[in-house]
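Hey, I'm writing a tutorial for new members on how sequence and structure tokens pair up, and I'd like a real worked example in the thread rather than a made-up one. If someone can provide the structure for the chain below, I'll link this post from the tutorial.
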Amino acid sequence: MRKIISFVHMSLDGFVAGPSGEMDWIKVDEEIFDYVGKRISEGDTALYGRVTYQMMENYWPTAGDKPTATRHDIEHSKWYSKVHKIVLSKTMKGTGLINTEIISDSVSGRIKEIKQQAGKDILIFGSPTATHSLMQQNLIDGYWLFVNPVILGQGIPLFADIKDKIKLKLLTTHQFNCGVTELNYIVEK
């Protein structure tokens, strides 16, 4: 069975964005890009909420073609172009989208079907609303957290409206030179 892994940057106090959605506090550098690049190659499907998908779609398809493109931009743009994308949205329509599937209803049943299909891990990138929805339905199998050395005090929390305790098992940790700490957990079922 395929696993759904939530990949997210978060503050030390558990927020994935500031009160207005700002993410200017997230630390990324070549060391993190290289580390993440190796890991995401293990997934063949990216899952997004509508807002994150639209943000990604506005940048990644052409990011690698720009004269100022970094090695990361080129590599991630290639990956983004070939990966199957799933978008959870009640408002988007799926016409004309390349390699992209929109799920607008029966989310739990549809995600369970996709998890049964052949393939690699399904990675949720950011997308706090989609993550909250899948979390409440016990559909997330792991959390790949990049804890940034900042306390926001308020914002959009990663863990919201949790009804039942979620037990986790720590698989790996990694400390980056910029101060970010990676925590890789699986959900114990």
